[in-house]
Structures are given as structure tokens and as C-alpha cells.
Write a structure and sequence with these properties.
Number of helices: 26
Strand content: 5-15%
Shape: globular
Radius of gyration: 32 Å
Largest sheet: 15 strands, parallel
Helix content: 40-55%
Distance between the termini: 58 Å
Length: 724
């Protein structure tokens, strides 16, 4: 029954010799220590020989701590990936495959071929045969496209069929076992189809009296044999010469399914295209035969040259996206046929990308084996080019296991439409699991509300949607041709619970937001940021819409919106009987207000028993208004307020001490019965009198939990002046 937390905390001080970030939020020091210990040893930050307790030849730091690691970050040149895939760390990798849930990449640099081989093995083991459910990438100003697409593709569960670990000298044992099982199933299937041939032929012989019997028998026999040949082509390796021979035979030799030569490449190709499902595909492919043959000369089949990663990576971006990027492309039925007929070593589809270096790769997603994929993908501050966006779009279009998608500051621009195309394709899968989408960037290429409607109309099952842009694109409206506007998209009734919109100084028109609110009956949280109010009635219209459409709304937040002239609406919100958390962050509430307005706020909150959290950061409260807020907890108050945030409000130590004394008096009058538990004081002027501030904080911490920081107000003021 004794806690070991103090021991692990002391071990941290002895071994790490650093102050852990956000130490107040650490709930388990054992887990924190072992995860950090593993990471520091892996990256060479911690020298185990410097501590006598760790300097033991029989002790493996990585092996000892690996079962406790649920989150791992790989940086720079991916040295950690090379170390983890070394032969002597095989057991460490096996432990991580069980324990690791979150894999992060940060500040990556370009890597050579040997490092990419190690990364392939690591991702294959931890994602495809492991427990990693989240892949996050951070701060990669000039991403290596090959490396980026490799990580994205393997996170989505894709790798080449029949040779998933083409960069490793020995095949993956788990894949080998799965391959044996599949081979046995395939052999059993071929045996069953052989019986099918004999049975159907026998039936045909017995029905000679019917004039239709021979034709029907031939058709069914040929269908069964074509199925068998299709299976053998899709599953078995062929040499480049056989690939080319098959292709030439399919375009020159007339189809004759009655004379099947066992194992003949020509006949396999003929039967493939004789199969009823594939005839249409053959007609579509013949038109580009010249381009195909040029690409075929660079084809290698499923067992390709292990040095040629580039081919596979860039074919991902050129996949026929089922009409996602081109409205005039083939129908869904035709695309299903193309998907069925594609195989390792199949001809290149002849997209424009074939003209670029490395783009002649034949190994497409259609031929890649599908492994386990992650459920969360996060990309922070990683510029995405047009080709990378097309790759990501193709991956998203079938990534049914994906539950959380975060795209933050990726410089999408017009490529946002490409991403939306992939998401729309994903939404058509009945087993799609996407529930959280967060998109943020510097420039918006389309109005925020239009993007919200577009995403929500495709994914009514979303629980969280966040759209955030810093600045409005000056060229907005000059959109690429062929991308229809989403502004008129009809929104079905949705499951949305949390909606966050950061407008790039766009006017907030309730009429555009209203369809979203009406469709989101289950909305619990709404956050509106950096919007302008086009008229004085707009906020009132919004409150009426919220009251009518979203009766279960619990949390409402306004950030960086000028509400100085909307005192009536602010008071209406504070007396709402349903809202439990209200945030007015940097809303200039008291810029032109009178003392009567502050008194009305206090009296309104005192009468509201449902409000649990009131956040007022950045509203120029100052000392005197902070002291007045203590009356919320007076003896005659019905307030249930638990949390109060007064960060960035020019509060000085003497004002905080006076607030503390007044609060203590109210608590004493109420016999110690008070629900107030949390006070946030970030970025106030408490450094101006350290002794007074310490006394105020000491007395406050006896009443509630106080969260503050050591903020240098003089430096902050200097920085503010310097940018004015």
C-alpha cells in the first residue's frame, strides 16, 4: 500500500539531472522516468557508464525499460531507428511492438538508403505487426519526399505484396508465417476450382441434348480457369521477361481460351483479359500501350531491386483516384474492375507523373499488400507539395481505420481540394471510423464556413471538427477548375459534439453558421476565434440560434473578438441555465465599460448555479476588478463556480493579496463550504513584488489549486513595445 512515486521522483533528479517539463501534470513518475530513460539512452543523451548503478555489463538499459515505453520520438537522422533494428536489440523491438502506442518524428533530416531500410523494418514491426496506433510528425521545414511518403504509406498499412520487407536481408518471420497460411488457403482454393472444372464439364456432357449446353459449359469452365489464372498472376512472382511477354501477347494474340497451356505466360495473359470482369479494363488499358511498354522496361515485378524505393513511393501519388481529382474519370464500377485487375508488374497507367524522375514505378497501392494501419495521423509544420498531397489523398481514400486526422500548418493552399477529395472517397466506405478532423494553416484558400460545411456534409459521424486559419488568402476565389463549391452542400443530421472555428478576420454571419448548428443537435462545445461582427445585432442572432438549435451546449468560447459593445449579450450568456463553461478570451470586455457592468456580471454569476468555469484571460481586469470578483463567492451567492481564469490581466502582487484576503473572509462566513477549486494566473505582473506575491500565493493554495508561471513582465513589455 506504499507509493513508490517519491523514489522515482528522486531517481529522476539523480539520473536525469534536469527539471522535467510540466512536472505538475505528471501523474506517474515511474512511467515518466522509464520512458525518458529509454529515449535518452537510445539517442545518446544519457551515458549509462556515468552512473555506478547502471554501469553493469549484465544490464541492458534499453531492454529493461522497453516494456514501459508507450510513446517514442525519433529525431534528426533517425539514429534511433538504426539502433532499434540492430540484431542485438531484437528483444527490445519485440517489447516495443507490444507496449508502444504513439510514434513521433521530429526535426527529421534527409537519410540515406541504409537508414531507410532500418526505418522500413521498424515501421513494419511496430505498426503492421505491433500496437502503434498514432503517428505524429513535427517541424520538418524541407521534408525528404521519399521519406515522408514512406512513413505515410506504411502508417496507412500499405507495403508491397509478397516482399513487405524488401530492404531487410531476411524476410519478416511474421509475414512468412502469414504467407504460408495464405499459400495453403490458395492451394485449397485452386483444388476446389479444379473440382469445379470437372463438375461443370461433366454437367455439360450430360446435357448434350440441349443446344445451349456446350456454350454454357465452355463459358463456366473458362470462367473458373480464368479465376485460377488471375489468382496465380496476382499471387505468384513473374520475371520481367514474362511480364513483357504477357503484355505483348495480350495486345497481339487473339483470345483463345479453349487451348490452355499449363503455365504458359501467353495463355495466362489471354485468360486474364478473357475474363468477363476484365474485358472492359483491357479496352481501357490498350489505348495507352505505348506508355505502358516504356514503363514496363523499368518494371521489376514484386521482387524488385532492393535499392529502388523511389518507384513504389511515387506511384502512390499517381493512382487513379476514382474520379476524386478528375470529375470526368471512370465510374465506380470501372474503378472496381481496374482495382481487381491490377497486379504486381502491371502496366503503368500513363499519368503525367511518369515523365518525372523515379515516377515509372509500377508497384502501386493496388498491388501493395494491406497490413494493419494506425488510427491517428498528425502532421505539424510539414510543407506538403502537390504530389505529396495527391499521395496523401490516395491513402486517405481507403484508410478506414483512421479515427483522428490533424493537418496543421502544411501550406496546403489550393491542395486543400485534393485532400477533400480523398476524404470524400473515404466517407463512402461503410466501415469508415473517422471521428476527429483538425485543419489549420496560415492562409485559407476557401472561406472557413465553406470548408466546415464541406467536411461535415461528407462526415456527419464526426465528433470533433476544428478549422483554423491565420490570414485570408488574397487570391481566394481563384480556385482551380473542376472543384465545385461546398457552400451549397447539404448537411445531414450529424453527431458533431465539438466545433472550433478560427476565422482569418472574416465576418461572422450567423446565416452561414445556422445550417451547421441546425444539423448538430448534439453539439456540446463551440469555439469561435478571431471573427469580426459585421453589425451590432449579429451576436444576438447567434445566441438565439444556439438557444433554438443546440439546447445541450455545455461549453462556449469566444477568443480575440471585440465584445466591448455587446454587454447585453455577455450578460445573457452568463445567466444561461445550461452552459457550464464560458470563455471570453482577449475580448476587450472592460475596454469601455463602467463599474455597473462589472457589478452586473458579478450578480449574474452569483445567481447562476449551473456555471462551473469562467475564463476571462486578456480582458484588462487589473487589481480593482479582480478584488471585486471575489464577491462571486459571498455568503448570499448560489454560484457553483469551480474554476476561474484571470491570466494576462495586468494583476499585481498587492491586488492578488487583497483578493486572497477577501476570498478568505467569504469562505469563513460560509463555514468553509465553497466549491472553488482552481485559479489560473498565467502572465500577470507578480514579479514586481516577489515577497507579496509569495504570501498571496501561499494563502491562496490553502484555499484552491493555483496555476501560475514565473513570467518576466518587464521583458514582455519590452517585446510588446518593440513590435508596435
Amino acid at each position: 500500500g506504499l507509493s513508490t512515486q517519491p523514489i522515482w521522483r528522486k531517481l529522476w533528479d539523480d539520473v536525469m539531472k534536469t527539471r522535467p517539463p510540466n512536472s505538475e501534470n505528471i501523474t506517474c513518475w515511474r512511467k515518466k522516468f522509464l520512458e525518458t530513460f529509454f529515449s535518452n539512452v537510445l539517442h545518446g543523451v544519457l551515458d549509462v557508464s556515468s552512473d555506478w548503478r547502471l554501469n553493469d555489463c549484465h544490464f541492458s538499459p534499453l531492454l529493461h525499460s522497453s516494456p514501459h515505453v508507450s510513446q517514442l520520438t525519433l529525431c534528426n537522422m533517425l539514429q534511433g531507428a538504426v539502433e532499434l533494428t540492430a540484431e542485438h536489440n531484437q528483444k527490445v523491438l519485440e517489447n516495443l511492438a507490444v507496449s508502444l502506442r504513439i510514434l513521433k518524428f521530429q526535426h527529421l533530416l534527409s537519410s540515406d538508403q541504409s537508414i531507410r531500410r532500418s526505418l522500413v523494418l521498424l515501421l513494419h514491426r511496430l505498426i503492421h505487426h505491433g500496437s502503434v496506433s498514432q503517428v505524429s510528425m513535427y517541424s520538418w521545414p524541407v521534408p525528404d519526399t521519399v521519406l515522408l511518403v514512406l512513413i505515410l504509406s506504411m502508417s496507412a498499412g500499405f507495403w508491397r505484396s509478397g516482399n513487405a520487407l524488401m530492404y531487410h536481408s531476411s524476410p519478416c518471420g511474421l509475414c512468412r508465417e502469414e504467407g504460408k497460411a495464405q499459400s495453403q488457403e490458395s492451394a485449397q482454393g485452386r483444388a476446389e476450382r479444379g473440382h469445379c472444372d470437372e463438375r461443370e464439364w461433366s454437367d455439360g456432357e450430360n446435357q448434350k441434348g440441349s443446344p445451349r449446353a456446350p456454350e454454357e459449359a465452355d463459358a463456366e469452365v473458362n470462367g473458373c480457369r480464368a479465376d485460377a489464372c488471375l489468382n496465380s498472376v496476382l499471387s505468384g512472382p513473374r520475371s520481367p521477361l514474362q511480364n513483357q511477354a504477357c503484355e505483348e501477347a495480350s495486345s497481339k494474340v487473339p483470345c483463345d481460351c479453349t487451348s490452355i497451356q499449363g503455365g504458359s505466360s501467353h495463355c495466362i495473359s489471354d485468360q486474364l483479359f478473357c475474363h468477363p470482369i476484365l474485358r472492359k479494363t483491357r479496352r481501357r488499358l490498350k489505348s495507352a500501350v505505348g506508355k505502358k511498354r516504356r514503363c514496363l522496361r523499368r518494371s521489376r515485378g514484386p521482387y524488385a531491386d532492393p535499392e529502388d524505393l523511389y518507384d513504389f513511393v511515387f506511384t502512390v501519388a499517381r493512382e487513379d483516384n476514382s474520379g476524386l481529382l478528375d470529375k470526368n474519370s471512370t465510374t465506380e464500377g470501372e474503378n472496381a474492375e481496374t482495382w481487381t485487375s491490377s497486379s504486381p508488374g502491371s502496366p503503368c497507367t500513363g499519368h503525367a507523373g511518369c515523365k518525372k524522375r523515379g515516377s515509372a514505378g509500377i508497384f502501386s497501392l493496388k498491388a501493395a499488400h494491406r497490413f494493419r494501419s494506425v488510427s491517428t495521423l498528425e502532421l505539424f509544420s510539414i510543407p506538403l507539395t502537390g504530389e505529396t498531397c495527391r499521395t496523401l489523398s490516395n491513402l486517405l481514400s481507403s484508410w478506414v481505420s483512421l479515427e483522428h486526422l490533424v493537418l496543421s500548418y502544411n501550406g496546403l493552399g489550393a491542395n486543400i481540394f485534393c485532400i477533400l477529395s480523398g476524404l470524400r472517397a473515404l466517407s463512402r466506405h461503410s466501415d469508415c471510423h473517422l471521428r476527429v478532423v483538425r485543419v489549420s494553416d496560415v492562409f485559407s484558400h476557401m472561406p472557413c464556413m465553406e470548408l466546415v460545411r464541406c467536411i461535415l456534409s461528407a462526415f456527419p459521424q464526426l465528433h470533433t471538427l476544428s478549422v483554423s486559419f491565420d490570414l485570408k488568402n488574397q487570391l481566394e476565389g481563384n480556385r482551380p477548375e473542376g472543384n465545385p463549391s461546398c457552400s451549397e452542400a447539404e448537411i445531414p443530421e450529424s453527431c458533431l459534439e465539438q466545433l472550433e472555428i478560427r476565422f482569418p478576420r472574416e465576418p461572422l454571419h450567423t446565416m452561414f453558421l445556422l445550417p451547421v448548428l441546425k444539423a448538430s443537435k448534439s453539439l456540446q462545445q463551440l469555439s469561435l476565434d478571431s471573427a469580426t461582427l459585421p453589425c451590432s445585432q449579429e451576436l444576438g442572432l447567434l445566441l438565439e440560434a444556439l438557444k433554438e438549435c443546440n439546447p445541450t451546449l455545455k461549453k462556449l468560447s469566444f477568443h480575440d473578438m471585440n465584445l466591448a459593445e455587446h454587454q447585453k449579450e455577455v450578460l445573457l450568456l452568463l445567466q444561461d441555465p445550461v452552459l457550464q463553461e464560458i470563455t471570453f478570451s482577449f475580448c476587450r470586455l472592460f475596454e469601455s465599460s463602467t463599474t455597473e457592468f462589472l457589478s452586473e456580471i458579478i450578480n449574474t454569476v452569483k445567481r447562476n448555479s449551473s456555471l462551473k468555469s469562467l475564463k476571462l484571460p486578456g480582458n484588462r481586469l487589473g487589481n480593482h476588478r479582480l478584488v471585486a470578483l471575489a464577491d462571486i463567492f459571498s455568503e448570499d451567492s448560489f454560484s457553483s463556480l469551480c474554476q476561474l481564469d484571470v491570466s494576462s490581466n495586468c494583476i499585481k502582487p498587492d491586488g492578488l493579496l487583497e483578493f486572497t484576503k477577501k476570498l478568505e473572509g467569504h469562505i469563513q462566513q460560509r463555514g468553509g463550504q465553497i466549491q472553488f477549486t482552481h485559479l489560473r494566473l498565467f502572465q500577470n505582473w507578480l514579479d514586481q513584488d516577489a515577497e507579496t506575491a509569495q504570501e498571496a500565493l501561499r494563502r491562496l493554495k490553502a484555499v484552491c489549486s493555483v496555476v501560475n508561471d514565473s513570467w518576466d513582465s518587464s521583458q514582455a513589455f519590452a517585446d510588446y513595445i518593440s513590435v508596435m
